[in-house]
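FW: tagging you since you asked about this chain on Friday. Here's the raw sequence from the shared folder, copied in full. Didn't touch anything.
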Amino acid sequence: MKVVMVGAGYVGLVSGACFAEFGTDVVVVDVAAEKIEALKQGRMPIYERGLEKLVGDNVADGRLTFTTDLEAAVAGADAVFLAVGTPTRRGDGHADLSYVYAAAEQVAKAAQGPLVIVTKSTVPVGTGREVQKIVRRVRPDLEIDVASNPEFLREGNAIGDFMRPDRVVIGVDSDRALNVLKRLYRPLYLIETPIVATSIESAELIKYASNAFLAVKITFINQMADLCEKAGADVHDVARGMGLDGRIGRKFLHPGPGYGGSCFPKDTLALARSAQELGAPVTIVEETIAANEARKAAMADRVIAACGGSVAGKTVAVLGLTFKPETDDMRDAPSLVVVPKLIEAGAKIRGYDPQPHYAKQVLPQEVFFAETALEAAQEADAVVLLTEWNEFRALPPRKLKAAMKGSVAVDLRNAWEPAAMRECGFSYSSIGRI
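HL: got it, structure written out here
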């Protein structure tokens, strides 16, 4: 089989490389010539564990290629996946579908025979039907099916999520489209991965509903952490007691500075707007969005309070700047709110992250970027753990304290052991713990 992946971003590149690993011939197309050239030379545009080797191996074996020529790529393809961006549209919060619709039109124009156009991008319910209208208008002469196949890739674990998923969701309204996608995913079927076949609308909603539910769960435990602080309880004990209930589960019950990244912020907002437009508002999601934004701002206030009510003229070391570990993604990262607010309050920021490429581009110029965590802590009055990379968990408290001038430690991920930190002389605070 031959597959075309339109878009060499996070979803398109990872999905394309994984399909190639299954033995499928894959062509990844992107309009950014410099990105395609870099990929041909083996340079990845994103950081994702194992991706460079996966891409390199499949390029070497001839199953994975990159091009800017969409027309040539589509020739002979069984399926074309649309994996282009769907950012939040300015002004109203809806998903911007212009890239999806433009790609669908271009693919239809380039098609030389029957094929399946599959929406891989995260899109609001109703998008697939609009893609069908575009395709039928542009190519009434060809049999082109439209399907929805949402991705469920976690940054930092995307390859594992593709190769060993909880489920594969396929939204179709034709047997031909269903058969093509089942053939593509046959390696997963053989390891008994659930294949969920639905209507196109249901598939689109499964993606949004899943992300929104997880965002609600994160926000719930964050608010429970605040309650624990007031009541003298420990949020870790509360989360463990809740998570052992099979109806609830343990995942996503970890308090922190709020969710960020490429999915949850834009997907919750897009779902809320679509629901409002359809006359079925999802108010719990609307409240989650508001609470999460307030959460990020409140984290800066925590740091200021821990420093005695003012950070004016003080040096604050911030460890971890990306929205989560094992990625270089800065989209809606808590650091984008916390760091500027601390600077506005008069703090000097010394930051460190294991993958700082994009952080250096989007954080204020006043931030000093250190090469190591201990360098960031050098002569700092306070240290803030903002993203829980594993190397920070293993950081010896005594070495950290020795590097600093002050003794304030604010652990916004509950990654450090309170007793060990206090034994080393830290004035230590975390989230929802006694």
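FW: The first strand starts at residue 2 and ends at 6.
HL: agreed, and The chain is about 45% helix and 15% strand.
FW: great, closing this out.
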